[in-house]
Amino acid sequence: MPEYDAGTVQQLTTACPRNCYSTCTLRVEVEEGRLRRILPHAGNRATPEGACLKGLSYVERVVAPDRILHPLRRAADGRFQRVSWDAALDEIASRLRRLRDEHGAQALLYYFGSGTKGLLNGVGAEFWRLYGGYTTTYGDLCWPAGLEATRLTLGANKHSAPWDLARARLIVVWGKNPAETNIHQMPFIEEAQRAGARLVVIDPRRTESAERADLLVQPRPGSDAALALAIAHVLFRDARVDRDFLQRHVLGWERFAESLHDCTPEWAEKISEVPARYVERLAALFAAGAPVTICAGYGMQRYTNSGQTMRAIIALLVLTGNIGKPGAGWVFANLQSAIFDRVPDPIAFYPPAEPDGVARVSIATARLGRDMLETRNPPLKMIWVERGNPVTQNPETNTVLEAFRALDFRVVVEQFLTDTAREADLVLPAKTMFEQSDVIGAYWHPYIQLKQKVLEPPGEVKPESEVYRLLAERLALPHDAVARAIPGSSDAEIDAWLGERLAPWPELSLQRLREGPVLAPGHQEVAFSDQVFATPSGKIELWSEEAQRRWHAAPLPVWFEPEESLRAQAANARRSALHFLTPNTKDRIHSQFNNLEMIRAHSKRPVLHMSPVDAAPRGIRHADRVRLLNARGSLVAEAHLDFGLRAGCVSMTNGWWISEGGTVNVLSLGRETDMGHGAAFHDNVVDVEKLT
Length: 692
Ligand SMILES: Nc1nc2c(c(=O)[nH]1)N[C@H]1C(S)=C(S)[C@@H](COP(=O)(O)OP(=O)(O)OC[C@H]3O[C@@H](n4cnc5c(=O)[nH]c(N)nc54)[C@H](O)[C@@H]3O)O[C@H]1N2
Ligand SMILES: Nc1nc2c(c(=O)[nH]1)N[C@H]1C(S)=C(S)[C@@H](COP(=O)(O)OP(=O)(O)OC[C@H]3O[C@@H](n4cnc5c(=O)[nH]c(N)nc54)[C@H](O)[C@@H]3O)O[C@H]1N2
Ligand SMILES: [Mo]
Description:
The chain is an alpha/beta fold. The protein folds into 3 domains: 83-133 and 345-440 and 456-507, Rossmann fold, CATH 3.40.50.740; 144-336 and 527-551, Dimethylsulfoxide Reductase, domain 2 (3-Layer(aba) Sandwich); 570-690, Barwin-like endoglucanases (Beta Barrel), CATH 2.40.40. The chain is built from 24 helices and 27 strands. A 6-stranded mixed beta sheet has the order 5-4-17-16-15-6, covered by helices on one side. The chain has a 6-stranded mixed beta barrel with strand order 22-26-23-25-24-27. One ligand MGD binds at residues 19-21, 142-143, 174-177, 180-182, 202-205, 207, 219, 221-222, 224, 297-300, 581, 583-586, 588-590, 682.
């Protein structure tokens, strides 16, 4: 640890913009232009403990020796060579001009991932619009099945403030692993437990979150809707539903009750392999538990039946009147800080229409590779990738690679040589969170924050907004329109641009945000406490005609087998197959951080978790090298025997690069969830064999 000279060390407030629930407020120490320490900031009630290990590792990340600090051009021999910004921008501009003349602007695919939050991310789309058009993706890799299920049922994606959880008497962590993915939720869970609350975890894996639970239930992957419907059956059977709440606020509950006639605990046991007595037990807990909060994760909405699964689970809170009350509710996504979005509900505008004729939204991100290859009129010729690592993180890696390699030209804006950057013709160096100010919201807590610039970009790094400005000049795009859409590069111009966006809310001045986070204007501490539900009927919709109209789904929540499951596969006589889960890990945010020493020290190589029950017949022992394979691809990993994992499942965290040993997505198939155009990553069956 270096010694600090109080005279030269500056403490500044900023916020972590990773795609993560916690979105921590941070106090950072900067000394002579170097990041020294990351400290907690008490101003955020949701994250007072400060950053996780990844957050602390930023001191390494910003100065990591493998960081890209200048443009790189692939040379004839396939290797990258340093080029000047002028050479890089001249080449891009001339290729863009030719592309627009010869094929039409929509031969350009603008692809962006979830690498960083911020209002300035929007300038990319503005630039491509001014260029004359572009093709982009619809849907999302992350959460849309759950978002859409929630919107259809409750009318909005919001939940109570994180600290409200401490008031719950029963907490059901369902398909979520906050001990790794939302560590700041754990203190609120523990506070509730200290006050006597019960904790139930429902997950095929015995996760770190499950270690604190009173009850762990391990359903067969993709079977949760059956479990939920059977709990609902018992609640009606035993007259443990909140009739008064149902009559006042809920559409379709009578028809729902009728539809549950055959959904007995024994029926659910056959489907989910959860013993019927546990179903009874769960129903009893729901009936007696009020206030009940379900913390629903994103893992179980990565299936082809996920939208309906999420609707079935929300129904348990609805039947027991656990909506709109302190300590009760559905904690999935809290978009109360999304006040800047022109479109408050992104999913509603996802369908692959041509909203303005400029952006052609014709490619499903869930089927990126296949759709890229099949796009016509015009076919795709060039890609611009920003804030994403699609080769590693999108389904069906081998098809994504094929589609990338079929293009004429690829530009990737990146901090590091990821698997996607390695496919580029031109790599442009990207800023980190510390090198340009921006305003961010969150999807768990309700704060608006300033992600403050605290460092100058190193080397020749330029933020995207500046790159777009320089390209606009070279392409002679209309000056005034560019000036309106994209800020100039000085700190004062960025601040002015952000200030304009904040202007409608006097409480959100930049000056105020420099001190710390501010609660989103209009924020509801207990979500739905006004019992206002923005659905077509104005009620909570267990019966949703919109679900039927938009997704061709049954209007009531139902269970059906995912397209790819062991049972669906049984028809194909693949008795040796195993269900492949690819969850998140505390060691990374998806494919970020694993190149750093601080993380590699304890996260060295891809590991496959496997039940001894499945390992033994395959002759696999702990630490053996194994091959996973299916029709899409194959992957080698080290086997770790895990008595906590449900038999029939194997699990490996997503985010490993191909260059680190292989991405899990060589095995996934590009296909959409039943609602919301999400990616059904976990509809994935593999064979596992020992390597000799
Ligand atoms: N450290 C860290 N934090 C993160 C992230 C990260 O990469 N690293 N990513 C952020 C992002 S973008 C996201 S989307 C969230 C995700 O946060 P979580 O939802 O907590 O994470 P996942 O690992 O996707 O899935 C959670 C759990 O779902 C379980 N699961 C899988 N299939 C089923 C099923 O059929 N039924 C049930 N009941 N459970 C199932 C998995 O075993 C897993 O433990 O985390 C955010 N936070
Ligand atoms: N099999 C499987 N696959 C999954 C999942 C799963 O559960 N299983 N989870 C899915 C989920 S939930 C998600 S959210 C996605 C995430 O998919 P992505 O958003 O593609 O994932 P990241 O790995 O976070 O990649 C972001 C990249 O952006 C870069 N970056 C960071 N900041 C900036 C910046 O300011 N500018 C630029 N230009 N680049 C920047 C980072 O270096 C990083 O390489 O992955 C999905 N993939
Ligand atoms: Mo995500």
